[in-house]
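Re: [ENG-882] Designed sequences occasionally contain unexpected residues at chain ends

Forwarding the minimal case from QA. Structure tokens:
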């Protein structure tokens, strides 16, 4: 059987009731309906166009699966509806069962439904007037039909709607409308927690409901690069946690730990606008209490490029990231390609230490002139800011050589050095073409390579990178 239906929004229910009475429709039957929608553990129903719900009509419980929509002017989709044992206790047990199987609650749609029935062109047509919480007044016209009569049934529905005086077609399901309304609702202020105990308590409900958690570790001073990570996390997880912690163990004593920007109130606001549910902002002693002794080292990878320039840096990064993983226990963690070596080290750590988290890498966000966004860009004065574009220009020159077939890393290195020399305020720390897996320079570059640059502009050290090929 196919469900063929059309939904109309902004409906004057009194006028449609009168039109239905004039057509001799039976009814109405009036029910309160509560639909608990779930998403699957193995695929995303929002993408596949499927829907799965527990419908509660008084004591009646039904399980409904709706398949993807077929392309048509009206909504046509396969539907399976299975009656369940009645009552509140049974409903609670079904919800528990589904969650144990990995199905996650998405939203609850509550409506008061008046159902009318009438015969048209040999079809049993149902007309429902729905008052939906938070969405408004709707009408649905619906028939169940065999596939071979689907086109005729659709035509019948369209003509009936015209007779009932409803015309504003709403193609979206109530669930989709509710999720869209939620997404555009004014940004919430995320909850801010500082201790491990508060964090655990704040995540307990998500854990109980087997919701997915996405973590975005940051040091704050948020910009669009960070926000792109948060948005990526928002798109795929039920709960989004951003951590804001300027991690002392990844700074050497002479580095900018003390003056690193900490615009905390702005950061929390930006987190809320980008969709963060929970900001974890631990104090130093929360992560490194008196007597702290344990550090993570990803040998080899931690010693080249940034690691050579900043001894101990990656030991501090790997340590704090593993601690954040253990505290938040995210399903997915989001990092920027901007810090390519950091990403590679975290991926290695996750693999080597069997950490159950998906590391998601997001592309580098740049200013229109190519400068990668960085919290440290705010140290630059106007002239330094202009000269800072030399990092991207240098990599762009090397990329052109690589794309023209140059595979000698020294040639790419020279091209970058020459470019950087054109900016008088810029001092090269390194500007190299390396193997993207080892971060070592090979004798000849392969089908994939990584350009990595670190340049001091005035007192500010900037890094960037570009992947080439594969
Ligand atoms: P930070 O606050 O500098 O530790 O950065 C936090 C996260 O944001 C890291 O995963 C960075 O790689 C990422 N990130 C920083 N800048 C950018 C950018 N311009 N584009 C994309 N991701 C970035």
């Amino acid at each position: 059987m196919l469900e063929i239906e059309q939904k109309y929004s902004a409906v004057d229910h009194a006028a449609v009731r009168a039109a239905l009475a004039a057509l001799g429709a039976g009814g109405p039957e009036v029910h309160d309906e509560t639909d608990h929608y779930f998403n699957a553990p193995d695929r995303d129903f929002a993408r596949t166009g499927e829907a799965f719900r527990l419908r509660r009509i008084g004591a009646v419980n039904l399980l409904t699966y709706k398949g993807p929509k077929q392309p048509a002017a009206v909504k046509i989709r396969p539907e399976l509806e299975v009656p369940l044992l009645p009552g509140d206790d049974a409903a609670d047990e079904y919800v528990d069962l589904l969650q144990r199987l990995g199905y996650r609650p998405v939203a609850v749609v509550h409506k008061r439904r008046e159902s009318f029935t009438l015969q048209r062109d040999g079809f049993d047509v149902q007309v429902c007037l729905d008052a939906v919480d938070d969405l408004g007044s709707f009408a649905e016209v619906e028939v169940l039909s065999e596939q071979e009569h689907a086109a005729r049934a659709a035509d019948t529905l369209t003509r009936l709607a015209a007779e009932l005086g409803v015309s504003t077609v709403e193609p979206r399901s109530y669930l989709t409308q509710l999720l869209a309304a939620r997404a555009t609702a004014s940004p919430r202020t995320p909850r801010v927690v500082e201790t491990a105990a508060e964090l655990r308590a704040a995540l307990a409900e998500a854990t109980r409901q087997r919701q997915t958690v996405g973590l975005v570790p940051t040091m704050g001073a948020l910009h669009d690069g960070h926000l792109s990570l948060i948005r990526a996390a928002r798109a795929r997880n039920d709960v989004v946690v951003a951590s804001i912690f300027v991690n002392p163990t990844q700074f050497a004593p002479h580095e900018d730990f003390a003056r690193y920007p900490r615009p905390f109130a702005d950061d929390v606001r930006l987190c809320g606008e980008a969709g963060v549910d929970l900001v974890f902002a631990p104090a130093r002693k929360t992560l490194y209490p008196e007597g702290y002794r344990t550090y993570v080292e990803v040998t080899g990878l931690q010693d080249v490029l940034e690691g050579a320039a900043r001894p101990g840096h990656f030991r501090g990064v790997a340590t704090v990231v593993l601690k954040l993983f253990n505290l938040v226990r995210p399903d997915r963690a989001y990092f920027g390609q901007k810090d390519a070596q950091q990403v590679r080290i975290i991926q290695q750590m996750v693999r080597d230490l069997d950490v159950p988290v998906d590391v998601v890498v997001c592309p580098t966000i740049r200013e229109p002139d190519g400068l990668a966004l960085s919290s440290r860009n705010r140290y630059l004065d106007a002239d330094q800011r202009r000269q800072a574009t030399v990092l991207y220009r240098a990599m762009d020159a090397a990329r052109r050589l690589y794309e023209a077939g140059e595979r000698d890393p020294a040639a790419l290195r020279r091209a970058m050095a020459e470019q950087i020399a054109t900016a008088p305020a810029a001092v090269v720390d390194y500007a190299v073409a390396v193997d993207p897996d080892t971060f070592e320079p090979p004798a000849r570059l392969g089908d994939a390579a990584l350009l990595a640059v670190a340049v001091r502009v005035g007192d500010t050290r900037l890094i960037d990178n570009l992947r080439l090929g594969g």
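QA comment: On inspection the terminal residues look reasonable. The CA atoms of residues 51 and 66 lie 5 Å apart. Proposing we downgrade this to a documentation issue.
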